[in-house]
Amino acid sequence: MEIYWETRIIRGFSDLEYRGNFRTMKIKSVRGTHDLLPEATQLWQEIEAAARHNFGLYGYAELRTPIFEETELFARSIGAATDIVQKEMYTFADSKGKTFSLRPEGTASVVRAFIEHGLHHDGGIHRLYYIGPMFRHERPQKGRYRQFHQIGVEVLGSDHPALEAEVIEMLHRFFEHLEVEGLELLVNSVGCTNCRPAYIQLLREQLNTQASDWCSQCRQRAETNPLRVLDCKTPDCQPLIEKLPTIEEHLCEECRRHFSRFRNYLDLQQVPYRVDPRLVRGLDYYVRTTFEMVSDRLGPTQNAVVGGGRYDGLVEILGGPATRGFGFALGIERLVTVMGERPNKSQSVAPDLFLGFLDDASFEECIQLASHLRGEGIHAYLDFQGRSLKAQMRLANRLGSRFTCVVGEEEMTSGRFPLKRMEDGHLVTVTREEISVQVKS
Ligand SMILES: [Zn+2]
Ligand SMILES: [Zn+2]
Fold it and tell me: pLDDT tens across 92-149, in order?
């Protein structure tokens, strides 16, 4: 595929002409994507480490799937008629005419892998998580990216409401670990294939009786997906939505019981929540428990950091055996926005020991010394820009090195090295072997 692309751009130019013509153009990152410079990456690593640690405590294991799949996978799982599949996927064909798409979300790939590798054969519960980029061709706006990143969890093989509450408690622990504050948990039940159709029919009737009062999108939703009317953000629709019947009043006995047990387990784990009867999912295979965690730091419309719920039909839709599923996806960019500016906790950039040298011979000694110390787990640093000793020491200060050691002819012959603690200027003379002990103490 790259070869096609390359020849299309370059065709007609010799290599030299090509470089000559385009040399002055600055190449920038693609619209809707962003770089993470080292300082920002530190926070991302912290977030990822917190996920790995806390999810691990609950028995979750990481799954890594490819970032592109056959388009058919998303058309079947997300729905061929959805905006995501119709307008937002990056889709391309290979030379044989097969169509692939960059993944717009993670669940479809996880379920595909679950089926493909026969994970269901043991009949147990599978606790999986993923971390990685997703791609959607949306109009770029604040907080929306075309390459965005998610941490997601899928637990397959059980419909126990306690498992749902456990997943949410796990999220709480994760956010606590990261000291994220001000998140509100919203929960709802979206019913099941037994009770939802009647509710949707009722919604549709109500929408049609006063059709002219609703926004044009809602009028359209009345036909295609009446449930989505409930989360319309148009101000004019708000008082109308308030008057609509809620799904809670129309849940079947089993759904009602499931929802009440789920909330009991949340109470048991002392996880605070609010029931939001307007919280819905657009896709048919979502059933029963649904939830979001929202922050007022994200503005009124796109305020969810996490969204998730139960999907009991998805594994079957993708050709696997009937399997219960529950999961969530968390937007890392949104989480970073909610976390705001943080003092830089990590000191990993500051060296433990700065090695100064006087001449070529001591430079070589320092190279060997640095190699030895790194083997001992010490962050050793030396200058490669030909600075004078004085300038080297200035650099050591600027980097915030904890110790310095200047190596010259005398140190090399005697095998004794002066180790200076920068904090208070305390100086000790030690052997080569003792350096790491001193620096670590
Ligand atoms: Zn039901
Ligand atoms: Zn509306």
Answer: 999 999 999 999 999 999 999 999 999 999 889 999 999 999 999 987 777 789 999 9
Chain region(s) in the chain for CATH 3.30.930.10: 38-195+251-339
Q: Look up the CATH architecture of domain 38-195+251-339.
A: 2-Layer Sandwich (3.30)
Contact 162, 263 (CB under 8 A): no
The boundaries of every CATH 3.40.50.800 domain in the chain are 353-440
For 317, the token pair is: 């839709």
Distance CA 423, CA 367 (A): 25
Q: What is the pLDDT at residue 285? A: 83
pLDDT in tens, 7-44: 445 555 566 655 656 566 789 999 999 999 988 899 99
| Closest listed ligand to the CA of 230 | 2
**C-alpha 186 to ligand 1 mean position (Å):** 20
Q: For residue 370, how far is its CA from the centre of ligand 2 (angstroms)? A: 65
pLDDT value for 137: 92
Question: If you measure from the C-alpha of residue 236 to the centroid of ligand 2, how many angstroms do you get, rounded to a whole number?
Answer: 7
Cβ < 5 A residues, ion ligand 1: 191-192, 194-195, 252, 255
The bound ligand whose nearest atom lies closest to the alpha carbon of 312 is 1
Residue from 317, 328, 331, 330 nearest 80 by CA: 317
Nearest to 306 by CA among 429, 129, 427, 432: 129
Nearest bound ligand to the CA of residue 252: 1
| CA angle 197–199–203, rounded 5-degree value | 115
Percentage above 70 pLDDT, the chain: 93
221 CA to centre of ligand 1 in angstroms: 22
DSSP readout, 368-430? HHHHHHHHTT--EEE--S---HHHHHHHHHHHT-SEEEEE-HHHHHHTEEEEEETTT--EEEE
Considering every ligand atom shown, identify the ligand nearest to the alpha carbon of residue 248 and give its number.
Answer: 1
**What is the distance in A from the centroid of ligand 1 to the CA of 254?**
6
Cα of 215 vs centre of ligand 1, distance in Å, is 29
Which residue has 């003092």 as its token pair? 343
Q: How confident is the model at residue 405 (pLDDT cuts 50, 70, 90)?
A: very high
With a threshold of 0.90, does the pTM exceed it?
A: no
Per-residue confidence band for 346, with pLDDT thresholds at 50, 70 and 90? low
> In this structure, which CATH number among 1.10.1740.110, 3.40.50.800, 3.90.25.10, 3.40.190.170 belongs to the domain 353-440?
3.40.50.800
